[in-house]
Amino acid sequence: MIDLTIDSLCFGGDGIGRYRQQAVFVPRTAPGDRVRCRIVNRRKNYLRAEVVELLESGGARRKPPCPWYGSCGGCSWQHLDDQSQAEWKARLLADQFRRGLRRDDLPEVEFIPAKKTWNYRSRVQFKCHHRRDGRLAIGFYRPGSHFVENVATCAIADDRINHMLALLRAWLPRFQQPDRIPQVDVIVGDAGPPHIVLHLFGGQPVPAFVTAVCGEKGYGLHVQRGRKDSLQSLTEACVPRIRPDSSGLELATVPGGFHQVHLEQNRRLVQCVLELAGLQGDERVVDLFCGMGNLTLPMAGGCRSIVGVEDYAPAIERARFNARSNSMDNAAFVAAPAAEYLDDLASGVDLLLLDPPRTGARDCMASVARLRPGRILYVSCDPATQVRDIAPLFGQGYRLERLVGIDMFPQTWHIESLALLVRREG
């Protein structure tokens, strides 16, 4: 056992203390905590430990309100008050860029905290496990494992999703093979009914009563037996719709597709993208990884033309529908991998917008540098891959003009970040 004082937090969420000149990473600790720890992993340059006893609480610490905190692998920052979470996310974002880019001319981080920090998630993936005693556990993986922690509610999920969780808990044990249901997704929007995606192994049918109840209540019900292209809809229901800005724009989502989990923060994200884009009305814009048009269509009103690119064809179909239903005729959409689309593009891009998945846009960056758009706006949910991707652009005449962090994921260490790069003249 060792006693530590936690000095800071790291990207990844752990607290950091020092023992005999070595850094010690301790999950679920707060700056100022004094803790008694057990070392669980020794490396050449650092140690990993787990808390055995909290000896003294730091000023940022609070009592986590969720009864599954610690046993559930999510929400690892519930023990930090909201202000401390925002402050540390801004610091960690700045540190990630400073370390990754090794430059002195970086702008200060601008940070947009969340006003709603509980019951905000509009999409949740519930993991399922059929126990030997015949009971079905529905919830989330425990930290560092694939053991499912059974939870009655989720403190960061929208109330409508928690309502659906109660129904799923009653329904799933009545399937023919409940042990072959690894996951259930529940999705809600600003408007429209909840939708359920059942992930099923094999060909087992969905019980007729489940389909009947969903049809009667107006819920969307879908089955996925493998990859996303296997998704099949079992009920006819209006899809969830989101409102990305205050203009009255309303976008239909697509089952199996992506939209930001925090709908209020998504509106702040869109507002920030529009501000950083600085559109004057005559620009030609390309939006890579556009999904169903969350950023594309709010931008369409401020530019000459915009093309959204996405390799998930159902999302492109929905984006085209959203453009038509909102009477936006200067927005076109292409179903293609982003790198493939850029390889076929000769020139003529004033602003390039990227919003890739967590893995980043590494395959695109050589083509981005070749196109030399005047402005590049990169939106990311993983600053590490974002920094990796934009680093080569500094040798191509670009500078980082603005850096903004958005708290899209309260109670976790994850950060949404926006980087605006501007090409120097000459």
Quick overview of this protein structure:
The protein has 426 residues and is an alpha/beta fold.
Description:
The structure is a single chain. The chain is of the alpha/beta class and 426 residues long. It folds into 3 domains: 2-61, OB fold (Dihydrolipoamide Acetyltransferase, E2P) (Beta Barrel), CATH 2.40.50; 86-116 and 258-423, Rossmann fold, CATH 3.40.50; 123-233, Beta Barrel (OB fold (Dihydrolipoamide Acetyltransferase, E2P)). Helix content is 23%, strand content 28%. The strands form 4 sheets. Strands 7-22-23-21-20-17-18-19 form an 8-stranded mixed sheet, with helices on both faces. A 7-stranded mixed sheet has the order 10-9-8-11-12-13-14, with helices on one face. It is globular, with a radius of gyration of 23 Å. The termini are far apart. The model has no long low-confidence stretch (mean pLDDT 95).
